[in-house]
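User: Fold this; tokens only.

Assistant: Input:
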Amino acid sequence: MDYRKKESGKIIVVLLTVIVFVLIALGVGYYLSMLKYEKEFELLSSETDKFRASYEYRLTSIESDVSKTIAFISERKGETEEQVNRIKLRSLLLKAKGEIISCKLSLADNNSEKAFGQIENAIYTLKDALVLSGKELGEKIEKTRLDLATVKGILESNVEKAQRELDNLWQRIDGLIAK
């Protein structure tokens, strides 16, 4: 019996030694795998940081390009709107000039009633042009409107003088168109 007790005691010691070595091997394996994963995590973090930096750089570059494009479009849009307003203004001035010339022709045909209507149309057309004009040009257009109203009053009493004044006014409008 003693022999069995000695042998069972050795088996327990051997088993405990094996268990301790297994635990040590597990601990070392765990530690080595943690080191491996830590290196991989650091590498992945480094790659992520590089990607973020590259992404931020590209995003900033794209935002800069978009801002430049928007500014370019806005500038062109402003220029286009300005040109459209100038074209509309010239169109209105040409229409007023045409009304004045038509008025002069109506006076030549002794049609005073039609001439009054054409002067009125020219005055209203110049009023629309006044909205699109700048300050300096607006003052000239307003003076021309007032002169047209004066010619309208002259028209009732002196047709020849009204025709001379209409000549001056359509030439003045022609000068405004050229500007």
